[in-house]
Specification:
The complex is a heterodimer of chains A (74) and B (484).
Chain A (H helix, E strand, L loop, with lengths): L1 H27 L5 E2 L4 E2 H32 L1
Helix pairs in contact in A: 1-2
Chain B lengths: L1 H27 L4 H6 L6 H12 L2 H14 L2 H31 L4 H9 L2 H33 L6 H49 L3 H11 L15 H14 L4 H8 L4 H18 L1 H13 L11 H9 L2 H39 L5 H23 L6 H13 L2 H9 L5 H20 L13 H18 L10
Helix pairs in contact in B: 1-8, 1-15, 3-8, 3-11, 3-12, 3-15, 4-5, 4-13, 4-15, 5-10, 5-12, 5-18, 6-7, 7-8, 7-15, 7-16, 7-17, 7-19, 8-13, 8-15, 8-16, 9-13, 10-17, 11-15, 15-16, 18-20, 19-20
The chains are: A mainly alpha (74), B mainly alpha (484).
C-alpha cells in the first residue's frame, strides 16, 4: 500500500501548499487595481484560481486514495 | 396595500412549501432516537452535501458578509472563502472517522462520541457545555437576521420582533414533528433557493449600477482601500489572513449541527462527495454578498457598526422591484432557517442524550427521549428569540467569538479519533485551559501583543493541542473504546 501512504501524505502537502499560496499572495502579487470585465481586484481572481486548484487536487487525492485502498483490500 | 402583497405571496408560498416538506418528512419518521435525531443514518451524497451547505451558510452568509464587506471591502472575501474551502479537509479527516465510530458504537450526539472514545463522563459533560454555550448565541443570529430582513422588506409592517418570532415558530413546527429527516429535506429546498436567489440579487443590483465592472470601477474611485488585501483600515494583515484560513476548518466541524451531519451519512462515499464539492461552491458563492456590501458604500455611505448588517436588504429595497426583493428575501430566510433548524435539533439531541438520558433518567424509553427532545426544541427556540430581542454585537462579531470558542474542541476531537494514547484528563485540561485563555484574550486580561499579530484562536488552539500531547505522553491512556 505504498500508494495509499503516498496519497495520505498528499493531503498534508495540499494543506501546506495552500498556506504557501497565501504567503505568495502577500509577498509577490501587487494586483490591487480593478481589472478585467468584472472589475474585481486582481488578487481576487488569483484567490479564486487557487481555490479551484485546491478543490481539484483534493478531489484527485480522495479519488486516488480510495481506489488504492479498495485495490489493497482485494 | 401593494407594498404588502408581493412579500406576502412570496413568504406564504415559501413557508407553506417548507412546512409541507417538513410534514412529509414526519410521515416517514419513526419514533426512535436514531431516526428522529439522525434520519436513520441514511442520507445519500446529494442530500448530505445540500444539508451541509445549507446548515453552514446562515444569516452570517446573507447579511453578515455584506455588512462586514461594507466596512472593510473585498478583503473579507479572502478572509471567508479561502478558509471555508479548506473546511473540505476537515469534513474528510474528522467526518470520516467520526462517521465510522458513530456507526460502530451507535453514537447519536457529539459529546457521546468523545465520552465513548475516551471513556470519561467528566470530559463528555465539559465538551457538551462548551458546545451549548457557544452554539446558543450563533442560534440567536438567525432570528436577528429574519427580524432585520422582514422589517425592511415590508417597510415596517412586520416589525423586527414579529419577524424574528414568525421564523422561530415555523422552524419549531417542522423540527418538532419531523426531526432530522424533515430538516435534511427542507435543507435541499433552502440550499437551492439560497444559492439561486443570491445570484439573482447580485445581477439585479449590478444591473442598476451599470454592470458589475462599472459598479466596481465606481467603488474603486470612491475608496481604493476597499480593494486592498488588508481591507479598509488595514484590519486584515497577513497574520489575520492565516488565522482566519485556519479558524474556519478548525471550527466548522466542531459545530454540533455539522458534526452530527457526519453521523447521518449513509456511506463513506456520501462524505467524500460532500468534501470534494464543498470548495467549488464557496469560491464563487461567497463573492455575491461581498460585492453587494462593497457597492453599498456608493449608495448608503457612512453606516456604522451593526447598521451595515442591513446593507443587503437596503440595496434590494433601493434597486429591485418589490417582487424580486421579496424573492431574494425568501432566499435569505432559507439560509437562516436551514441553520437554525439544525442548531435546534443538535442542541436538543445533546441535552436529551447527554443530560436527560445519561444523567437524569437512565431508564427513559426511546419514545420518552424523543418526547423530551421535542420539548427542548421549543425551549431552545424561545431562548434564541430572547437573545435576539437585544442584539449586543454585529453578526460578524457574534460569529467570530462563537467560532473561536468551538475551535478549542478541535484538538480533543482529532486526538480522540486518531490517537490511541490520548488521555481523557489531558483533553479535559486542554479544553478548560483553552477556553480560559480565550476568555483572557477577549476580555483583555491577557495583553493582545501575546498573540504576535495572529487572532487569539491560533495560540489558544496550539496551547490546547500541546496540553493534550504532553499530558497524554506523561499520563495514563484512557479506558475508552477507540474507533476502528
Amino acid at each position: 500500500m505504498n500508494l495509499s501512504k503516498l496519497l495520505r501524505n498528499g493531503l498534508f502537502w495540499t494543506a501546506i501548499f495552500t498556506l504557501l499560496c497565501i504567503l505568495a499572495l502577500d509577498l509577490g502579487f501587487g494586483f490591487e487595481e480593478s481589472i478585467g470585465p468584472l472589475g474585481l481586484p486582481g488578487w481576487v481572481y488569483y484567490l479564486i484560481a487557487l481555490q479551484m486548484l485546491f478543490a481539484l487536487l483534493f478531489g484527485v487525492f480522495i479519488r486516488s486514495y480510495w481506489k488504492a485502498r479498495s485495490e489493497g483490500e482485494r | 396595500m401593494e407594498n404588502v402583497v408581493a412579500p406576502a405571496i412570496a413568504l406564504t408560498l415559501y413557508l407553506g412549501l417548507t412546512v409541507l416538506i417538513g410534514w412529509y418528512g414526519y410521515r416517514f419518521s419513526k419514533s426512535t432516537p436514531d431516526d428522529y435525531f439522525l434520519a436513520g443514518r441514511g442520507l445519500g451524497p446529494l442530500l448530505l452535501f445540500f444539508t451541509l451547505i445549507a446548515t453552514n451558510f446562515s444569516a452570517f452568509f446573507f447579511l453578515g458578509f455584506a455588512g462586514r464587506s461594507y466596512h472593510v471591502g473585498y478583503s473579507f472575501y479572502g478572509i471567508m472563502s479561502f478558509g471555508t474551502a479548506l473546511v473540505a479537509i476537515s469534513i474528510y479527516l474528522v467526518g470520516y472517522k467520526a462517521w465510522q465510530a458513530a456507526r460502530q458504537h451507535s453514537i447519536i450526539s457529539p459529546p457521546e462520541l468523545i465520552g465513548v472514545l475516551l471513556g470519561s463522563k467528566a470530559l463528555k459533560m465539559v465538551y457538551l457545555a462548551v458546545m451549548v454555550v457557544f452554539t446558543i448565541p450563533y442560534l440567536a443570529i438567525q432570528p436577528i437576521g429574519a427580524g432585520y430582513l422582514l422589517e425592511r422588506l415590508t417597510d415596517g409592517a412586520i416589525s423586527y420582533y414579529w419577524g424574528a418570532g414568525l421564523l422561530s415558530i415555523i422552524i419549531v413546527f417542522y423540527v418538532f414533528f419531523g426531526g432530522m429527516r424533515s430538516v435534511a429535506w427542507t435543507d435541499v429546498l433552502q440550499g437551492v433557493l439560497m444559492m439561486t436567489l443570491m445570484i439573482v440579487a447580485v445581477i439585479i443590483v449590478a444591473d442598476k449600477l451599470g454592470g458589475i465592472g462599472e459598479a466596481n470601477r465606481q467603488a474603486l474611485e470612491l475608496d481604493r482601500s476597499l480593494f486592498s488585501r488588508e481591507g479598509r483600515g488595514e484590519v486584515y494583515q497577513l497574520r489575520s489572513w492565516i488565522s482566519f484560513s485556519l479558524l474556519w476548518p478548525l471550527a466548522v466541524p466542531m459545530f454540533p449541527q455539522i458534526l452530527m451531519r457526519f453521523f447521518t451519512a449513509k456511506s463513506a462515499r456520501a462524505l467524500k462527495t460532500s468534501a470534494v464539492l464543498y470548495p467549488f461552491v464557496t469560491a464563487f458563492l461567497f463573492l455575491g454578498p461581498v460585492m453587494i456590501g462593497v457597492w453599498g458604500n456608493l449608495v448608503f455611505p457612512g453606516l456604522s457598526g451593526n447598521a451595515a448588517d442591513q446593507i443587503l436588504p437596503m440595496m434590494l429595497q433601493e434597486f429591485a422591484p418589490l417582487w424580486i426583493g421579496s424573492l431574494v428575501t425568501v432566499g435569505a430566510l432559507a439560509a437562516f432557517m436551514s441553520t437554525m433548524d439544525s442548531q435546534l435539533l443538535a442542541l436538543s439531541t445533546m441535552l436529551t442524550r447527554d443530560v436527560y438520558q445519561s444523567v437524569l433518567r437512565p431508564a427513559a424509553t426511546l419514545q420518552r427521549q424523543v418526547f423530551v427532545g421535542r420539548i427542548l426544541i421549543v425551549l431552545l427556540a424561545a431562548t434564541g428569540l430572547v437573545i435576539a430581542l437585544q442584539p449586543h454585537d454585529t453578526i460578524a462579531g457574534i460569529v467570530q467569538n462563537t467560532f473561536s470558542g468551538l475551535a478549542v474542541l478541535f484538538p480533543t476531537t482529532v486526538a480522540a479519533l486518531y490517537w490511541r494514547r490520548t488521555s481523557a484528563k489531558a483533553c479535559l485540561l486542554s479544553i478548560l485551559c483553552g477556553e480560559a485563555l480565550l476568555a483572557g484574550f477577549v476580555s483583555g486580561v491577557i495583553p493582545p501583543g501575546w498573540t504576535m499579530g495572529f487572532e487569539p484562536v491560533i495560540p489558544v488552539v496550539l496551547a490546547a493541542a500541546g496540553i493534550i500531547i504532553v499530558g497524554s505522553l506523561a499520563g495514563k491512556q484512557s479506558q475508552g473504546r477507540p474507533g476502528s
